Each structure stands twice: as C-alpha cells, then as structure tokens.
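Fold these two proteins, one after the other.
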Amino acid sequence: MTHPDASEERAETAVEAVEVDAELLAFSTLEDIHHGDAHLLFTDYSGDYSAEQWARIILENVPGETRIALERAWQIIALRLRAVGTAHTVAGWPIAHVDPEYVLLHTASDFGFEGQLLFRRNENSVLLATFVRFHDPAARAVWDRALPAHLGFVRTLLAASADRLADTSAANH
C-alpha cells in the first residue's frame, strides 16, 4: 500500500455522511431499525487494519480527554457496557459479529433502546454506522436529544483517528 510521504503536506481528513441503505441495514441484527446514520472516513490506511482493529483505533486508541467524553456520553444515555478491556468487547461494547471486513458491536440502554455500531473497511475507506431500535416512545425522546452530539462526535472520532495514524506513519519514516 502506498502512503503519503512524510514530507508531503497532509490534506484535511475527509469524513462524509452517507445514506443508510438496504445493504448497510443487512449488517444489523436488530429486528426493526428506527434510526440509522453512517459516515465514511476516506483513508489510504483502510486496508492496513482489520475492521476490529479500526473499531479499536477509533474508540479505544484515543486521548484521555476523548475517552472521558465518550464514557460520559455513554453514561448519559445509560448504555450497558462492560469494563474496557473485557474479552470480546471494543471500548466496553460487546462484539456481536467479527470478521476481517466488518465488526458489529451491540448493547442496550436502560432508557429502552438498543444500539449497534458497525465498522466496515473498504478499499479506500472505513465506514462507521449506527443503528438504533426503540422499545418505547420515551426512548426516542432520549435519543433525539443525544443525536446532534452523537453525529458531531462520530465525525470527530473518525477524522482524529485518521490524523493519529498519519502522524504515526510520518514519524516512522
């Protein structure tokens, strides 16, 4: 794989919101999906890591202040997560499915909804999709309040992970 030379000026990391279509929905194991969003991170490094490794890069290999913000956000929406570092989890999210091309994380909230995170690597990109199923109307209200922060956080996490990888690659050359 060809990577940018360390002396080249790095372009702004490209993260793009994409439509949640039937192909993406097929990865979810939820019976009904009431909310879905998806973002692509365009990167030359997509093929260098498995989908699970990408999930760990994006959710676990983050600066301390980002880790604190993630945990606080997940506590606010009462996600039932395991301790970070627990087997068969990524950042405390239980792994529902894993193979080299995609990993699906799944948990529930005490507020009455289930959520899944899909990490899927493609030739020149990494996809992060979120799927949510509400079990009662109050759960939708909780999610609707959290949604703007969620969408901003996803974009920031994706862009920051690519920037960290590019910085590491440049330092190693």
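Now the second one:
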Amino acid sequence: MVKMVMTGCLFWLVATSALLGQNRITLVDVYQEMEQLRAQVGRLQLELEAQRRENDNMRRSLEAMKQQQQSLVSSYNQFVTQTNSTLTTLPERERALKTEVFSEMTRQMKDLADQVQRGFDQLTKTRSYSQEQTSSVTFDQDYPSTGVAYVVQPGDSLSKIAKKMNSTVRDIQNANQIRDPSRDLRAGDTIFVPQRNP
C-alpha cells in the first residue's frame, strides 16, 4: 500500500512539475519529496493506528456501558415486579392484620367480661353470706338497762363507741338490735349505749 501511495505521489509530482512549466526535474528533488512523503505516510499510519486503538477502546467502553445499562434495566424491572407484588398483597395483609387485631380485642374483652362477672359473683356471694350471718344474729336481753344516748359521729364504729363510752360491742349491738354495723350504724343516728357499774 505504501508503494502505491509513493507511486501515486511520484506521478503527482511529475505531473505537477510539468504543469508548472518546469522541464527539468532533478532526481534529487524527487527523492527528497519522496522522503517527505514517506515521513508523512508514516505519521499518517501511526495516527491511523492510534485512531484504530481509540476506536477499539471506545467500542469496548460502549459494550461495557450497554451491559451495565441492561443490568440496570433488569434490576429496575425486578424492583418494579417486586413492588407490584408487594402492593398487590398489601390489602390482603391489611385484612389479615385487622382480623388478628379484632380477634385479640374480642378475646381481651371476653376475658375482662369474665373477670367482671367473677367479681360480681363473688360480691353477690359475700353479700348473701353477710345477710345470712346478719339474719342469723340473735339479740340477748342481758345488757344493762342503765346507760346514755349517743349520737353516732362520722368514722365511729361499735368498738370505738364501746371504748369511749365504757361499754361493750355486744351490749350496744343487743340494746339497739344492730345486725350489720357497716349498714345499720350511720352518722347522725342516736343509739342507746348500756353501761355497767364498775
């Protein structure tokens, strides 16, 4: 290829010289111009080789970028698929969670209702037991007939009154027929407090 270029150049020189009116072309001039052309062709060959290498590098970079782009597109498509799948199952998950919360609340409310019912049952049993005990209380008439009237104060109990007035709980209870002191002894009531002689 270099020979063809050189021959072409030589022909061009000869033709150019003839056109310019130079009848004599010396061999030295032709040789010098050939050397310059050879040097130029060499530089062009080096530049061409550098361009090929650069083109090859650019092709490889382009291929790498295409592969990276394909990888990114694939990752994006997987992400979109997973997101759509997750979004599709959200209403189902929400329903399941609501059902679970409702079931747990129902269970806790039932437990609370059972506890309240047990409390009521126990309270009812206690009251009926207290009423049974109160109804079974009998009053004796062997308390002293001497004593004083006393107005029940807030916070008073039979034992406090008995201690304060030099009497006994039993005598106060018998004299006033108090079956249940927590219910039958109220602040403001006037009761008879029997007193024994010392």
